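On clarity, I found the account of how folds are encoded harder to follow than it need be. What matters is that the chain and its backbone geometry are given together, residue for residue. I therefore recommend that a typical entry be quoted early in the introduction. An entry of this sort, consisting of the sequence and the corresponding backbone structure tokens, reads as follows:
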Amino acid sequence: MIKDGILNINKPSGMTSHDVVSKLRRRLGIKRIGHTGTLDPMASGVLPVCIGKATRIIEYYDADLKSYHAVMKLGTVTDSMDSTGNVISTCSYESITEENVISAAAAFDGYVTQTPPIYSALKVDGKRLYEYAREGKSVDIKSREVYLEGMKVTSIDLSEGVIEFDISCSKGTYIRSIIDDMGKALGCGAMMTALERTRSGYFGLEDALWLEDALSMDDEELESHIIQPADSLVNLGAVELAPARLKAFCNGMSSHQKGYRITKKEGKLPGYRVYCKGEFYGIAVIEEGELIPEKVIVNN
């Protein structure tokens, strides 16, 4: 029986991320299960799902860049910024050139400021934005700074007003907002018509398991797709703990420099994966040379 680990699921369009978790919870008979980053219902693609003890490390995926392939339609603006919403306005895009598109795309690189869509799960004063929208209530949505690793336009069809692009970005980025901002920059408006997440840190679409396939597999086959948490924590360093200090670490006690050695320098996040004789036991930080347990995840 599967108790711990991560499944890299390819979420189908038309289903919420919560739906995916609920179906897997029923299939596995496990209560402790959660995903590492919400995908909108219309979006498809990579959705890592943590099971059992692996749910304790979800926070460490926050620094992972996420990559998307998106499709936008020029000339139409909706209240949700995508094709599921109500049309607010339309505009001709006949004067738009490929050079205009490439020039506008170049601005979406590095740290940029964006405003989240009103139809989103972001909470303001304890209430989700889409709840305010459905009630017809206005709310002050604060803009936020996000990081984009360059928009790469992959297809331009100006006869249909359809543009496709790839982009990698930090947590909290809304691709719908990027498309809305690009439509404004082009002067004709735009909406998102399709979105697929192709990568989330360690997890790629090429290795993702279709949800329906996962649900139909027997335990032995499904277990072969389980990813061990330590393998995916690419933003943390690594240390090898002396066997004599293992019991102390598992009991939450710190170790001096002679009790461990650094095998991989600290990454984007502060902290280290802790190993002993090749087995993963948890996560720790190093302060003034002392290894201090942060998350103890004992392998049984």
Q: What stands out?
A: The longest helix spans residues 17-28. Helices lie at 17-28, 98-105, 129-134, 175-186, 211-216, 219-223, 229-232, 246-250.
